[in-house]
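Weekly puzzle thread! Below is a chain. First person to post its structure in C-alpha coordinate form gets bragging rights.
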Amino acid sequence: MTSYIVQRLALAALTLAIVCLLTFSVLRVMPGSAAELMVTDQGYADDVEQLREKLGLNDPLYKQWWDWIAQIGSGSLGESLYTGESISAELTRRLPPTLLLGALIIAVGWVIGVPLGIVAAVKQGTVLDQLSRTLAVLFLAVPTFWLATMFLVFSSIWFGWAPSLRFVSLTDDPIAHLEFLFWPALIGGLAASASVVRITRTLMLEVLRQDYIRTAQAKGLAPRPVLFRHGLSNASPPLVTILGLQVSMQVITGAVILEQIFSIPGMGRYILEAAARRDYPVVQAILLFTASLILVTNLIVDVLYGYLDPRVRVR
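Winning reply:
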Protein backbone atom coordinates (compact mmCIF):
# COMPACT_ATOMS: atom_id res chain seq x y z
CA MET A 1 0.00 0.00 0.00
CA THR A 2 2.87 2.39 0.75
CA SER A 3 4.39 1.98 -2.71
CA TYR A 4 0.95 2.46 -4.23
CA ILE A 5 0.46 5.74 -2.37
CA VAL A 6 3.90 6.96 -3.50
CA GLN A 7 3.03 6.10 -7.11
CA ARG A 8 -0.27 7.95 -6.82
CA LEU A 9 1.44 11.00 -5.35
CA ALA A 10 3.95 11.07 -8.21
CA LEU A 11 1.14 10.76 -10.75
CA ALA A 12 -0.80 13.51 -8.98
CA ALA A 13 2.21 15.84 -9.16
CA LEU A 14 2.56 15.18 -12.89
CA THR A 15 -1.16 15.76 -13.43
CA LEU A 16 -1.01 19.00 -11.48
CA ALA A 17 1.91 20.22 -13.64
CA ILE A 18 -0.06 19.45 -16.81
CA VAL A 19 -3.12 21.26 -15.43
CA CYS A 20 -0.99 24.31 -14.62
CA LEU A 21 0.47 24.36 -18.14
CA LEU A 22 -2.92 23.96 -19.84
CA THR A 23 -4.53 26.61 -17.64
CA PHE A 24 -1.74 29.09 -18.31
CA SER A 25 -1.79 28.43 -22.07
CA VAL A 26 -5.56 28.45 -22.65
CA LEU A 27 -6.08 31.73 -20.79
CA ARG A 28 -3.54 33.49 -23.00
CA VAL A 29 -4.85 32.22 -26.34
CA MET A 30 -8.44 33.26 -25.57
CA PRO A 31 -9.73 36.25 -27.58
CA GLY A 32 -9.20 39.55 -25.83
CA SER A 33 -6.75 40.31 -23.07
CA ALA A 34 -6.92 41.62 -19.55
CA ALA A 35 -5.18 44.86 -20.52
CA GLU A 36 -7.65 45.59 -23.33
CA LEU A 37 -10.65 44.99 -21.07
CA MET A 38 -9.13 47.08 -18.30
CA VAL A 39 -8.64 50.02 -20.66
CA THR A 40 -11.80 49.82 -22.78
CA ASP A 41 -14.30 48.77 -20.11
CA GLN A 42 -12.81 49.92 -16.83
CA GLY A 43 -10.67 52.90 -17.78
CA TYR A 44 -7.64 51.73 -15.78
CA ALA A 45 -5.23 53.45 -18.18
CA ASP A 46 -5.14 55.43 -21.41
CA ASP A 47 -2.81 53.17 -23.34
CA VAL A 48 -3.13 49.38 -23.69
CA GLU A 49 0.55 48.77 -24.42
CA GLN A 50 1.65 50.81 -21.45
CA LEU A 51 -0.67 48.82 -19.20
CA ARG A 52 0.51 45.51 -20.66
CA GLU A 53 4.07 46.52 -19.93
CA LYS A 54 3.18 47.49 -16.37
CA LEU A 55 1.40 44.18 -15.74
CA GLY A 56 4.19 42.13 -17.29
CA LEU A 57 1.95 40.82 -20.10
CA ASN A 58 4.49 41.82 -22.75
CA ASP A 59 7.06 39.41 -21.34
CA PRO A 60 7.64 36.19 -23.30
CA LEU A 61 5.21 33.43 -22.35
CA TYR A 62 7.96 31.22 -21.00
CA LYS A 63 9.03 34.01 -18.63
CA GLN A 64 5.46 34.60 -17.48
CA TRP A 65 5.10 30.86 -16.92
CA TRP A 66 8.32 30.63 -14.96
CA ASP A 67 7.44 33.67 -12.84
CA TRP A 68 4.08 32.10 -11.96
CA ILE A 69 5.62 28.74 -11.04
CA ALA A 70 8.30 30.48 -8.95
CA GLN A 71 5.59 32.49 -7.21
CA ILE A 72 3.64 29.32 -6.35
CA GLY A 73 6.85 27.69 -5.13
CA SER A 74 7.35 30.57 -2.73
CA GLY A 75 3.88 29.97 -1.26
CA SER A 76 2.09 32.89 -2.90
CA LEU A 77 -0.81 32.75 -5.37
CA GLY A 78 -0.14 36.27 -6.58
CA GLU A 79 -2.34 39.34 -6.77
CA SER A 80 -5.40 40.27 -8.79
CA LEU A 81 -4.65 42.34 -11.90
CA TYR A 82 -7.68 44.51 -11.18
CA THR A 83 -7.65 45.11 -7.45
CA GLY A 84 -4.04 44.34 -6.59
CA GLU A 85 -5.29 42.40 -3.57
CA SER A 86 -3.75 39.11 -2.45
CA ILE A 87 -5.49 36.13 -4.03
CA SER A 88 -4.67 33.98 -1.01
CA ALA A 89 -6.45 36.41 1.30
CA GLU A 90 -9.47 36.56 -0.99
CA LEU A 91 -9.68 32.77 -1.25
CA THR A 92 -9.39 32.49 2.52
CA ARG A 93 -12.47 34.69 2.80
CA ARG A 94 -14.47 33.04 0.01
CA LEU A 95 -13.53 29.40 0.47
CA PRO A 96 -15.39 28.56 3.74
CA PRO A 97 -18.94 29.16 2.39
CA THR A 98 -18.09 27.21 -0.77
CA LEU A 99 -16.70 24.21 1.11
CA LEU A 100 -19.55 24.26 3.64
CA LEU A 101 -22.14 24.45 0.87
CA GLY A 102 -20.51 21.53 -0.94
CA ALA A 103 -20.40 19.48 2.28
CA LEU A 104 -24.07 20.19 3.01
CA ILE A 105 -25.06 19.25 -0.54
CA ILE A 106 -23.26 15.92 -0.27
CA ALA A 107 -24.70 15.26 3.20
CA VAL A 108 -28.26 15.94 2.03
CA GLY A 109 -27.74 13.85 -1.10
CA TRP A 110 -26.50 10.84 0.85
CA VAL A 111 -29.03 11.11 3.68
CA ILE A 112 -31.77 10.99 1.03
CA GLY A 113 -30.11 8.78 -1.58
CA VAL A 114 -28.73 5.82 0.39
CA PRO A 115 -31.95 4.95 2.31
CA LEU A 116 -34.05 5.33 -0.85
CA GLY A 117 -31.64 3.13 -2.78
CA ILE A 118 -31.75 0.43 -0.07
CA VAL A 119 -35.56 0.53 0.09
CA ALA A 120 -35.78 0.33 -3.71
CA ALA A 121 -33.52 -2.74 -3.73
CA VAL A 122 -35.31 -4.54 -0.88
CA LYS A 123 -38.74 -3.69 -2.32
CA GLN A 124 -37.79 -4.42 -5.93
CA GLY A 125 -40.73 -4.20 -8.29
CA THR A 126 -43.07 -2.57 -5.77
CA VAL A 127 -44.58 0.91 -5.81
CA LEU A 128 -41.78 2.18 -3.55
CA ASP A 129 -39.18 0.95 -6.02
CA GLN A 130 -40.94 2.55 -8.96
CA LEU A 131 -41.41 5.82 -7.08
CA SER A 132 -37.77 6.07 -5.97
CA ARG A 133 -36.48 5.34 -9.47
CA THR A 134 -38.88 7.89 -10.97
CA LEU A 135 -37.70 10.58 -8.56
CA ALA A 136 -34.07 9.68 -9.28
CA VAL A 137 -34.56 10.01 -13.04
CA LEU A 138 -36.47 13.26 -12.54
CA PHE A 139 -33.71 14.91 -10.51
CA LEU A 140 -31.07 13.59 -12.91
CA ALA A 141 -32.91 15.15 -15.84
CA VAL A 142 -33.74 18.51 -14.25
CA PRO A 143 -30.78 20.93 -14.27
CA THR A 144 -29.85 22.35 -10.87
CA PHE A 145 -29.94 25.95 -12.11
CA TRP A 146 -33.52 25.47 -13.40
CA LEU A 147 -34.66 23.85 -10.16
CA ALA A 148 -33.15 26.65 -8.08
CA THR A 149 -34.61 29.36 -10.31
CA MET A 150 -38.09 27.81 -10.28
CA PHE A 151 -37.90 27.49 -6.50
CA LEU A 152 -37.22 31.21 -6.10
CA VAL A 153 -39.89 32.19 -8.65
CA PHE A 154 -42.75 29.96 -7.50
CA SER A 155 -42.12 30.39 -3.78
CA SER A 156 -42.62 34.11 -4.35
CA ILE A 157 -45.69 33.67 -6.57
CA TRP A 158 -47.51 30.95 -4.65
CA PHE A 159 -46.55 31.73 -1.05
CA GLY A 160 -45.43 35.35 -1.21
CA TRP A 161 -42.15 34.29 0.37
CA ALA A 162 -38.57 33.92 -0.78
CA PRO A 163 -35.40 32.94 1.09
CA SER A 164 -33.17 35.75 2.21
CA LEU A 165 -30.39 36.56 -0.24
CA ARG A 166 -28.50 38.68 2.30
CA PHE A 167 -25.32 36.80 3.09
CA VAL A 168 -24.29 36.38 6.73
CA SER A 169 -20.81 35.04 7.43
CA LEU A 170 -20.23 32.04 9.66
CA THR A 171 -18.14 34.03 12.14
CA ASP A 172 -20.77 36.75 12.55
CA ASP A 173 -23.77 34.46 13.09
CA PRO A 174 -23.37 30.67 12.64
CA ILE A 175 -27.12 29.98 12.88
CA ALA A 176 -28.05 32.64 10.32
CA HIS A 177 -25.24 31.40 8.06
CA LEU A 178 -26.58 27.84 8.10
CA GLU A 179 -30.12 29.11 7.51
CA PHE A 180 -28.84 31.07 4.52
CA LEU A 181 -27.22 27.94 3.05
CA PHE A 182 -30.15 25.63 3.83
CA TRP A 183 -32.15 26.08 0.63
CA PRO A 184 -29.25 25.95 -1.86
CA ALA A 185 -27.93 22.88 0.02
CA LEU A 186 -31.35 21.20 -0.16
CA ILE A 187 -31.74 21.90 -3.88
CA GLY A 188 -28.23 20.77 -4.66
CA GLY A 189 -28.69 17.72 -2.40
CA LEU A 190 -31.80 16.62 -4.28
CA ALA A 191 -29.83 16.64 -7.51
CA ALA A 192 -26.91 14.81 -5.88
CA SER A 193 -29.19 12.16 -4.37
CA ALA A 194 -30.43 11.02 -7.77
CA SER A 195 -27.24 9.24 -8.77
CA VAL A 196 -26.77 7.88 -5.22
CA VAL A 197 -30.25 6.28 -5.32
CA ARG A 198 -29.63 4.54 -8.63
CA ILE A 199 -26.15 3.29 -7.76
CA THR A 200 -27.11 2.17 -4.24
CA ARG A 201 -30.07 0.23 -5.62
CA THR A 202 -27.94 -1.45 -8.28
CA LEU A 203 -25.18 -2.40 -5.83
CA MET A 204 -27.59 -3.68 -3.20
CA LEU A 205 -29.47 -5.80 -5.74
CA GLU A 206 -26.20 -7.38 -6.82
CA VAL A 207 -25.06 -8.03 -3.25
CA LEU A 208 -28.41 -9.38 -2.02
CA ARG A 209 -28.30 -12.08 -4.70
CA GLN A 210 -24.97 -13.46 -3.52
CA ASP A 211 -24.64 -16.89 -1.92
CA TYR A 212 -23.36 -15.57 1.42
CA ILE A 213 -26.53 -13.50 1.82
CA ARG A 214 -28.70 -16.58 1.28
CA THR A 215 -26.48 -18.50 3.70
CA ALA A 216 -26.90 -15.81 6.36
CA GLN A 217 -30.67 -15.87 5.85
CA ALA A 218 -30.71 -19.67 6.02
CA LYS A 219 -28.89 -19.54 9.37
CA GLY A 220 -31.79 -17.55 10.75
CA LEU A 221 -30.14 -14.15 11.07
CA ALA A 222 -32.53 -11.23 11.46
CA PRO A 223 -33.24 -9.22 8.27
CA ARG A 224 -31.60 -6.04 9.59
CA PRO A 225 -28.12 -7.53 10.29
CA VAL A 226 -28.24 -9.35 6.96
CA LEU A 227 -29.14 -6.15 5.15
CA PHE A 228 -26.65 -3.82 6.82
CA ARG A 229 -23.81 -5.98 8.17
CA HIS A 230 -23.56 -8.29 5.16
CA GLY A 231 -25.30 -6.33 2.42
CA LEU A 232 -24.46 -2.66 2.78
CA SER A 233 -20.93 -3.26 4.08
CA ASN A 234 -20.07 -5.21 0.91
CA ALA A 235 -21.67 -2.59 -1.32
CA SER A 236 -19.82 0.28 0.38
CA PRO A 237 -16.49 0.26 -1.57
CA PRO A 238 -18.06 1.35 -4.90
CA LEU A 239 -20.13 3.92 -3.00
CA VAL A 240 -16.92 5.45 -1.66
CA THR A 241 -15.82 6.01 -5.26
CA ILE A 242 -19.08 7.82 -6.01
CA LEU A 243 -18.61 9.92 -2.88
CA GLY A 244 -15.16 10.94 -4.07
CA LEU A 245 -16.52 12.01 -7.45
CA GLN A 246 -19.32 13.99 -5.81
CA VAL A 247 -16.92 15.87 -3.55
CA SER A 248 -15.22 17.31 -6.61
CA MET A 249 -18.40 17.85 -8.61
CA GLN A 250 -20.43 19.50 -5.86
CA VAL A 251 -17.67 21.85 -4.74
CA ILE A 252 -17.18 22.97 -8.35
CA THR A 253 -20.65 22.89 -9.94
CA GLY A 254 -22.46 23.70 -6.72
CA ALA A 255 -20.24 26.71 -6.21
CA VAL A 256 -20.52 28.10 -9.70
CA ILE A 257 -24.27 27.58 -10.19
CA LEU A 258 -25.88 27.88 -6.77
CA GLU A 259 -23.62 30.68 -5.53
CA GLN A 260 -24.61 32.76 -8.53
CA ILE A 261 -28.34 32.18 -8.06
CA PHE A 262 -28.43 32.61 -4.27
CA SER A 263 -25.87 35.46 -4.16
CA ILE A 264 -23.31 33.56 -2.09
CA PRO A 265 -19.92 35.34 -2.15
CA GLY A 266 -17.89 32.18 -2.55
CA MET A 267 -15.26 30.76 -4.82
CA GLY A 268 -17.70 30.07 -7.67
CA ARG A 269 -18.70 33.71 -8.08
CA TYR A 270 -15.07 34.73 -7.72
CA ILE A 271 -13.93 32.61 -10.66
CA LEU A 272 -16.85 33.72 -12.84
CA GLU A 273 -16.03 37.37 -12.24
CA ALA A 274 -12.32 36.75 -12.84
CA ALA A 275 -12.92 34.78 -16.05
CA ALA A 276 -15.17 37.50 -17.46
CA ARG A 277 -12.45 40.11 -16.79
CA ARG A 278 -9.53 37.87 -17.92
CA ASP A 279 -7.98 38.20 -14.46
CA TYR A 280 -5.34 35.58 -15.20
CA PRO A 281 -3.78 35.17 -11.73
CA VAL A 282 -7.17 34.64 -10.06
CA VAL A 283 -8.40 32.06 -12.58
CA GLN A 284 -5.08 30.22 -12.49
CA ALA A 285 -5.07 30.13 -8.69
CA ILE A 286 -8.64 28.82 -8.42
CA LEU A 287 -8.14 26.16 -11.09
CA LEU A 288 -4.91 25.10 -9.39
CA PHE A 289 -6.74 24.76 -6.08
CA THR A 290 -9.62 22.86 -7.70
CA ALA A 291 -7.26 20.43 -9.43
CA SER A 292 -5.41 19.87 -6.16
CA LEU A 293 -8.69 19.20 -4.37
CA ILE A 294 -9.73 16.63 -6.98
CA LEU A 295 -6.37 14.87 -6.86
CA VAL A 296 -6.30 14.73 -3.06
CA THR A 297 -9.89 13.45 -2.98
CA ASN A 298 -9.13 10.72 -5.51
CA LEU A 299 -6.07 9.66 -3.51
CA ILE A 300 -8.11 9.42 -0.30
CA VAL A 301 -10.80 7.41 -2.13
CA ASP A 302 -8.22 4.98 -3.51
CA VAL A 303 -6.73 4.41 -0.07
CA LEU A 304 -10.15 3.98 1.56
CA TYR A 305 -11.17 1.57 -1.18
CA GLY A 306 -8.15 -0.58 -0.36
CA TYR A 307 -9.03 -0.69 3.33
CA LEU A 308 -12.71 -1.44 2.69
CA ASP A 309 -11.98 -4.14 0.13
CA PRO A 310 -8.74 -6.08 0.87
CA ARG A 311 -8.94 -7.75 -2.55
CA VAL A 312 -7.82 -4.58 -4.30
CA ARG A 313 -4.92 -3.69 -1.99
CA VAL A 314 -1.56 -3.14 -3.61
CA ARG A 315 1.43 -4.13 -1.50
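Puzzle host: Confirmed. Bonus trivia for everyone else. The mean pLDDT is 80.
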